[in-house]
Amino acid sequence: MITIGGAIGVGLFLGSSVTIRLAGPGVIVTYLFSAVIALIVAYAVAEMAVVHPVAGSFGVYAEKYLSSWAGFSVRATYGFVQIIAVGAEITAVAIYFGFWFPSVPQWAWVVGVSIGLVLLNALQVSRFGEFEYWFALIKVLAIIVFIVVGFGLIFGLGPKHAVGISNLTSHGGFLPFGFKGVWLAMTLGLTSYMGVEVIGVTAGEAERPVPRHAPLE
User: Fold this and answer.
1) Among 200, 191, 204, 198, residue whose Cα is nearest residue 37
2) What is the pLDDT of residues 6-40, one digit of tens each?
3) Contact 6, 188 (CB under 8 A)
């Protein structure tokens, strides 16, 4: 659930509008390519987390198998990326709540959510896992609702007529901008899957980060 919650976020809910504008209906190919890359990364991190269940995750892996400089670079760049990601998440919250509550200034949402994130991350990692589980469940339920509503629009189950799959072929076809648009959209598509690596980061900080069948030292 931590991995799912990390992958479902601003990049999918808010960033998909940008990727669709870049690739058109071909954005489906963009997210499929990105999913394959994310799956490979997730499997690799999971395997390494099982072999080396230590705090530090892929920073430790890079240092052990490459060099100390590689380990430092991985830790520094990941920290920098997370700072940018948190800023994007908080900005998205301000945009969403600004739409629902236009009378409240957006900076108020930014300050409130920022304080909440700091307090949440100051707790034990077990508490983080508990909060992340329930937040991820909300995201999953939202995705399911979106899928149901989408099928309703496609097959005309609501008050409006059936849309069908016409939007995939009209307005320039399935690839209105060619594969160039698909590749350009991957810059954001890959960002949408950022979060699958969190399972490796948190695994090493678990109370007993070893497989059940492995003997404890």
Assistant:
1) 191
2) 677 766 777 788 888 899 899 999 999 988 998 88
3) no
Q: Which two tokens stand for residue 200?
A: 């490796």
Q: Which of 196, 210, 186, 158 is nearest to 32 (CA)?
A: 186
H or E element that contains 36? helix 27-51
Residue given tokens 């060619």 in the structure block: 178
Q: Three-state SS across 40-109? A: HHHHHHHHHHHHCCCCCHHHHHHHHHCCHHHHHHHHHHHHHHHHHHHHHHHHHHHHHHHHHCCCCCHHHH
Q: Please, are residues 110 and 121 in contact by the beta-carbon 8 Å criterion?
A: no
pLDDT digit string, tens, across residues 56-104: 888 888 898 999 999 999 889 988 888 888 888 888 888 888 888 989 9
Q: How many CB atoms lie within 10 A of CB 207?
A: 7
Q: Which two tokens stand for residue 6?
A: 């990390």
pTM of the model: 0.73
What are the tokens at 111? 């300050």
